[in-house]
Amino acid sequence: MKSVLRTSLVVALMAVVTVAVGQDAEKKEKKGKKNRQPQAITAIQKSLAKTELTDEQKQKFEKLFAAVKAELQTINKSRVELLKGASGKLQDIRKKAAADGKKGAELQAAIQKGLGLSDEQFAKYTEISKKSRGVTQKLKKDTAAILTAEQIEKTGLSAPKTRKRKKNADKKNADK
């Protein structure tokens, strides 16, 4: 009789613990997905933590981050749909190709081949990547516009350098 009672008690305790652990895991999973920030925003927020911001600047950043977050999430959603779960594979392919010394067009071809994308799909992937870079660069530019020169120096943030400036400088040097 004692063994039946003891076994029943153990099974009941295991059921209670299993349900409790399962509920905690669901809460963590939902919380992580809901509050997750895009990497570009997180990086800038870490840099901004190095300096003191005025209340006005904080409000501007909240609005800026909210707008950019929605845009980056839309871009990321289209990337995920295109890659259909191969985004983890993408990083491995890129690392392997870079380790093999591939750059530029060779690197892009290796990524396309590794992901098994058609030319049309890869063109869409490239366009999505360009949009993402553009939004990130605009975010950095807007962030630098809100900060004072002293704050920019403390945080290490500045407006991104564009290739156009370099090309224009090269043209000026060539003309001389």
Give a verbal description of the structure:
- The protein has about 180 residues and is mostly helical.
- The chain has a domain at about 75-165.
- Helix content is about 80%, strand content about 0%.
- The chain has helices spanning about 1-35, 40-50, 55-85, 85-100, 105-115, 120-145, 150-155, 165-175.
- Helix 4 runs antiparallel to helix 5 (about 105-115).
Keywords:
176 residues, mainly alpha, single chain, 0% strand, flat, 82% helix
- Tell me, briefly, the overall form: flat
- The end-to-end distance, rounded to whole angstroms, is 101 Å
* Biggest sheet descriptor: none
Q: Which stretches are low in confidence, meaning pLDDT under 50 for 5 or more residues running?
A: none
Rg result: 25 Å
Strand content: under 5%
Oligomer: single chain
Mean pLDDT value: 78
Structural class call reads mainly alpha
- Report the strand count: 0
In sequence order, what are the helices and strands, one letter per element? Answer: HHHHHHHH
Count of helices? 8
**In which range does the helix fraction lie?**
over 70%
Q: What topology does this entry show?
A:
Elements: H1 2-34, H2 39-48, H3 55-83, H4 87-99, H5 104-115, H6 119-146, H7 149-155, H8 163-175
Helix pairs in contact: 3-6, 4-5
